[in-house]
Each structure stands twice: as structure tokens, then as C-alpha cells.
Amino acid sequence: xxxxxxxxxxxxxxxxxxxxxxxxxxxxxxxxxxxxxxxxxxxxxxxxxxxxxxxxxxxxxxxxxxxxxxxxxxxxxxxxxxxxxxxxxxxxxxxxxxxxxxxxxxxxxxxxxxxxxxxxxxxxxxxxxxxxxxxxxxxxxxxxxxxxxxxxxxxxxxxxxxxxxxxxxxxxxxxxxxxxxxxxxxxxxxxxxxxxxxxxxxxxxxxxxxxxxxxxxxxxxxxxxxxxxxxxxxxxxxxxxxxxxxxxxxxxxxxxxxxxxxxxxxxxxxxxxxxxxxxxxxxxxxxxxxxxxxxxxxxxxxxxxxxxxxxxxxxxxxxxxxxxxxxxxxxxxxxxxxxxxxxxxxxxxxxxxxxxxxxxxxxxxxxxxxxxxxxxxxxxxxxxxxxxxxxxxxx
Length: 395
Hints:
Elements: H1 8-12, H2 14-20, E1 27-29, H3 42-51, E2 59-63, E3 66-67, E4 74-78, E5 84-88, H4 90-98, E6 102-105, H5 113-126, E7 130-137, E8 152-169, E9 191-196, E10 200-203, E11 207-213, E12 219-226, H6 231-241, H7 246-249, H8 258-276, H9 281-291, E13 314-317, E14 323-326, E15 331-336, E16 339-344, H10 348-354, E17 360-361, H11 362-369, H12 373-385, E18 389-391
């Protein structure tokens, strides 16, 4: 399994993982370093830090649960237009890292094609948003101490070794906005393990853990944070959908009689009960959630007006969970990134092809739908204008 074909889905166990592990317990899936070769390297990290200007908290150093002051590893640069940015000082950066700091780079999936593809895999499989953060460390000092996350994580160890002490949860399914905080973790971990290059770890939200480089060996790993989809999200969506009813839009009869208030609540209760008794409520909610996902936007330069009928143009969707449905009137509807398009039914095969998340030649899209290059280019132009597709194979 090469890096180009590395499947985090396969590594974690596919459908068995969804049925037996997701949201229930942690899982370690061992793998070989060679399986990740080319996914992301130290050279890639060096290049990102060289060619981008970052400010905390996007890029930061952490040690013992505290953020290291930026002035200890960077210096302010004032441009001739009086703007200020902080330039990394490699020698000071190296020194802070040698002293025990952990390097953190948030949303590295937006900066590196391979990690972006890894995030896309998880988004398509788990039907949720994913942000990938990178961590690099060289000593046994813990960057963040014993802590828990308010979202599930999938960790991929890219190089070196990392020691994970896992303590388990002390509150079931804690949330970012919660009514109470979890109790402190137990003294002893339920698992004390070391991840080496090629290993993958899944950890549910709310599980206390502490992380450090193993025995002083350098470590490079990425943590894929999975957006939670909870009952609170369902209730919020349901409240939006029910606004179609006049009774929901009406003012609450705060100053009405007891009978008027009871009648109001009974009406609202019946509307909610009807929806909750619907067998397809979760399916409809999931469809809406997919359709309004945040797109991984990308420009399509130099094509700023219309897409030319060029057979070799590479086209890809920038949304990972598009919703495609046949309409009774004989058309096909694509919903993605919060937008909706209706095309003739003959466009469906090319839309199905695009829905796999890969880049496809315009000629292949046209052939799949049995249309001309110009017709295929017209469909793609609409999707590019709607920020659902991009021209070019790069991510």
C-alpha cells in the first residue's frame, strides 16, 4: 500500500470500525512506516514553515500545557508599508524544541495536498467535517498535559515514535458547550502505548490522554479532528425546518391566559412529535448536513469566465459529501456546499463520476454522460461559478 493509495478507512477496519468502535472505545491499528512514505515528510514541514507567514495560534509552540511566547522563537518584521509580521528564527526555534516544546500547526490539511486528501477520505467515509493539526516533538516533555478533546480524533504517526497514555472518559460524551465539566482523570491510565511510524490511533471525544515523544525520540504526527454531530445539532436543524409552520413563527403567548399558553405548547408539541415519529428524520437531517458542508474552496485560474472545451482539463469537486438525487420531472439535482443545481438527466453519469472526490479529465466526464465537450464544459462552468468544483488536479 503506497502513500498515494494509503487508506485510513482500510487501516481502521471499514464497516467493522463503524459498527464496533466509533464513539465507543479507542483503537490502535498498527502499520508499517513504508505505507506512509511520501504522505508528509520533515522536508514538507520545513517548506511550509519557510514559505508561509504564520501567527499564533495557527502556528505555535506548547510545553507543559502552556503556550510558549512567540517572541522566544521569532522576531517582528516591519515592512515598508508599516505592517508587522513575525519571522521565525530557526536557531531559536530549534532551541525551544530541544528544551521540550512541541511544535503545533493547525489546519495543515489546507497547506499540504497529501494531508488534504487524508482529510477528504475521512470526510467522505464518516460524513463529517475534518480539520487536521500537525504536532512535532523531540523530548519526553508533554506539550499539553493530561487533557481531553471535545471531538473524536484519528491520529496518524508519520515519523518517529510517540507515547500515549490513555485514561478513558470521566463524563460520557462531553461537549464544547456543556452544562458541566468532566471529573478529573484517574491516577493510572487504562492504556500506555507507543505509536511508531505507520500506526493509526482512534480516540473518542472525552477520553483523557497525555502525549509525549517516546524516550526522547523525535516524533511527527497529524491528528484529524472529527466534527461531532449530536442530538443538539438535530434539534437545532429541526427548529429551523419547523419555521415553515405559522405556529412556530408565532410569538409565544407570554401574557396570554393559561389556556392560551397550553394550546400554544400543545400545537408546538404535536409538530415536534410528528417529526420525531418520522422514520426518515435522521436520513433527511443527514442529507441536509451533507448538502451544507463547508467546501474546501479552490480557485480555477486561469479560467475566470467559462471553462473551455479542453479534453485534458482536470475537474474535481471541492465538496466531499455532495448529495445527488433524481427528480420526478426527469432532471437530476446536485446539492453541495449549501448550493443546489438542477441539470438534465443525461448529466447524471458525469456528476456521479465527480462525486468520488477525484480529479477527472473533461473528456472522460463528457464520455460518461454521452455529451459533447462543450456541453460538459457548460456543466462544469456552473459548478465552478457556484464554488462546488475547481479546475486542476492539485489540492
